[in-house]
Write a structure and sequence with these properties.
- With 664 residues, the chain is of the alpha+beta class.
- The protein contains 14 helices and 23 strands.
- The chain is elongated.
- The N and C termini lie far apart (92 Å).
């Protein structure tokens, strides 16, 4: 006789199984063995170690063994020979795979059988144990019974529990889990009575009673589904239950041979099912429940895997297979969505309103994208991060489609195809581009409004009566000790000074770049409250601009801190070729007579500033908020701007946008 490696088979059993798997296998075998279900009985007897548990609320001791007893036909010779045959086909029509016997040994170190059966006119008792080596049956013993009236049946002893800590202690918990896994059996009124009880008789639960109109599990519907594959039509029965005790989410269960095979959370298809549903009872109390949908079909029976933990057809839909797990589950989900439409629609409308409120109150720039996102796919009780991710994906997809459309039109024009519709196509694209960009524009304009308000506050005195520091304005406009390699476009506010600064070639803040001069700024740099930038490429005719900031409300300046002289000295050094481009890649290209230089000083006007401006021959501005002029020696335009003028000019440039959005 050939040998098999039992330990190897047990070791390879997939991890999806649990300690309940062998118990369920035993119950299923007992149901198969009972000919008359109405008089049949199955008992699951729990044996404990006798020590009270301080963890379990009911002080139940740990489970050390479980007996499964039935009054079926018993382990006659036919059953015995089938059991001793690896992958036996005796019970193939009932779903037997000839594999379940190995499941017992994964969770119980010792498995023994006592069985009474009838052979011709005699009753016999067979005992044996499950082998661990190469023999399936070990220690077999048969005896003939002398009694005339003997009840046939089998006792399965499961002992020497492996990983006892993984086994639930409470009898009620075990009962509920068994019912959920065996619920398809209870649809049939002829299912034998199944009792779970303590060995000492202290507690006993009839599992069948969980399924009834007034119990914890209620069947509310039975639907029919048809699926086609290879020109053949297959029937699927859908049994729908309300479960009032479960804390788990609602789920879809595909079964095979009356066993649960796969379970999928229903909210994967309909997010509104993620939380428990509720109903109001006759006595005006709220009662919570979850939904369980069980799918039964000959097709599933025929395509289940050996371990009964998956099916031999694709999980996801594809072009080559007509039936998939995903396709079946989607059909079930649509039926459940319709069946519970009142609750689902109510939750959907609530979620929709919450999303609209988020956009209105926190992200108005997303208004144009509301129609682009699928609200059904968004989970209930969504986080801001989750909804923002949805909007960003929608924005990306819309922009991608627009880009492709533009490319196709340009290509068609180049190939002189479809030219007669060219204007219509361009108009449609422009509309698409506008809609796609509105959310960005609204967001950007709203941000500018907040920055202007903040800048206005920095012009005021603090609660202590002192003016704000230069660095506070400095960091608002451009973070110190950074450059535009580390500060993104959205993290600085150079537009407050001049819109052109946003498009600078290089910007830096308090960072030394020149290897020859470590105390002065290089191009586009804040240094001791100053900023340089250069527009365009590093060529002689590209302008260079220097900004210098003074503390708001400052009214005293020593002669050696004349800001006009300071910016002129920086300009002189630049025009002398003292500075390099970032990282020292090349010298700054300048010419004393051809390189335009723009010098700006931002400060509040005072008598000393007026004096400095007069000595330099500057002209007072028409609004009396600053000075301007030209210094020939440096080929430099110079301007002194008050903080009031800076903020008012920035407000004026943005006023039309604020007005259009209604945020003035």
């Amino acid at each position: 006789m050939s040998k098999i490696n039992i330990e190897g088979i047990v070791r390879d059993i997939k991890e999806r199984s649990t300690y309940l798997s062998p118990i369920i296998e035993a119950i299923c075998n007992s149901i198969d063995a009972i000919k008359n279900g109405s008089t049949g009985k199955i008992e699951i007897i729990v044996k404990r170690d006798g020590q009270q548990s301080f963890v379990d609320a009911n002080n139940n001791g740990s489970i050390i063994a479980i007996d499964v007893i039935d009054n079926g036909r018993g382990f006659d010779q036919e059953n015995r020979d089938s059991f001793d045959t690896f992958r036996s086909g005796l019970k193939y029509k009932q779903g037997g795979k000839g594999f379940g016997r190995f499941m017992y040994l994964k969770y119980f170190g010792k498995v023994e059988v006592e069985s009474i059966y009838k052979e011709v006119d005699e009753f016999k008792k067979r005992t044996f144990s499950f082998g661990h080596g190469s023999e399936i049956i070990e220690n077999e013993h048969i005896e003939t019974l002398t009694e005339n009236e003997v009840q046939t049946g089998t006792i399965l002893h499961l002992s020497s529990v492996r990983n006892a800590s993984n086994i639930d202690k409470g009898l009620e918990v075990i009962a509920r889990k068994l019912v959920e896994r065996l619920i398809v059996f209870f649809i049939n009124p002829d299912t034998p009575q199944i009792v779970l009880r303590e060995e000492d008789g202290s507690n006993s639960i009839i599992l069948n009673k969980y399924i009834s109109p007034n119990s914890s599990i209620v069947q509310i519907a039975h639907e029919k589904i048809k699926e086609c594959s290879n020109n053949c039509s297959y029937d699927f029965d859908l049994y729908i239950f309300k479960t009032y005790f479960s804390n788990l989410a609602s789920k879809i269960i595909l079964t095979a041979n009356n066993r649960e095979v796969t379970e999928t959370f229903l909210h994967n298809y309909v997010p509104e099912f993620k939380e428990t549903l509720n109903e109001i009872t006759d006595d005006k109390k709220q009662k919570n429940y979850t939904v369980s949908a069980y799918v039964v079909s000959d097709y599933l029976d025929e395509h289940v895997s050996v371990e009964r933990d998956s099916f031999n057809f694709p999980k996801e839909s594809n072009l080559f297979e007509d039936i998939s797990q995903n396709k079946i589950e989607k059909r079930v989900a649509s039926i459940l969505k319709e069946l519970f439409s009142d609750s689902i629609n109510s939750r959907f409308e609530k979620k929709k309103k919450e999303i609209e409120n988020y956009v209105t109150e926190k992200a108005p720039w997303h208004k144009t994208l509301l129609s682009e996102i699928n609200i059904e796919d968004i989970p209930v009780n969504f986080s801001e991060e989750e909804i923002e991710t949805k909007f960003q994906k929608a924005k990306f997809e819309k922009e991608r489609q627009t880009t492709l459309a533009i490319r196709n039109i340009v290509k068609a024009q180049n190939e002189k195809e479809g030219y007669e519709n060219f204007e219509e196509q361009v108009e449609e694209i422009l509309k698409s581009v506008t809609d796609s960009s509105k959310n960005d524009l609204v967001h950007y304009v709203c941000t500018r409004k907040k920055i202007l308000d903040l800048f206005d506050n920095l012009r005021k005195r603090t609660e202590s009566g002192r003016p704000h520091l230069e660095k506070e304005i400095h960091n608002l406009i451009f973070p110190m000790i950074n450059d535009d390699r580390t500060v993104s476009y959205n993290d600085h506010n150079l537009w407050l000074l001049d819109e052109r600064l946003v498009f600078s070639k290089y910007i830096a803040s308090d960072k030394t770049i020149s290897k020859d001069d470590t105390k002065e700024p290089d191009l586009a740099i804040f240094y001791n409250e100053k900023m340089f930038y250069r527009n365009g490429d590093n060529v002689i005719t590209s302008p260079i601009t220097i900004y210098e900031f003074k503390r708001p409300k400052r009214d005293k300046y020593p002669d050696d801190e004349n800001p006009i002289h300071q910016v002129c000295r920086y300009a002189q050094k630049i025009l002398n070729g003292k500075y390099e481009m970032p990282d020292g890649l090349e010298p700054v290209c300048v010419d004393k007579f051809r390189t335009p230089v723009y010098l700006y000083i931002v400060c509040d006007k005072c008598k000393k500033i007026d004096e400095f401006a007069s000595l330099s021959g500057l002209t007072v501005s028409p609004d009396n908020e600053g000075y301007f002029g030209y210094i020939k020696a440096y080929n430099a335009y110079i301007e002194i701007i008050s903080y009031k003028k800076l903020i008012e000019d920035a407000k004026m440039r943005n006023k039309i946008f604020f007005h259009k959005l209604g945020i003035e």
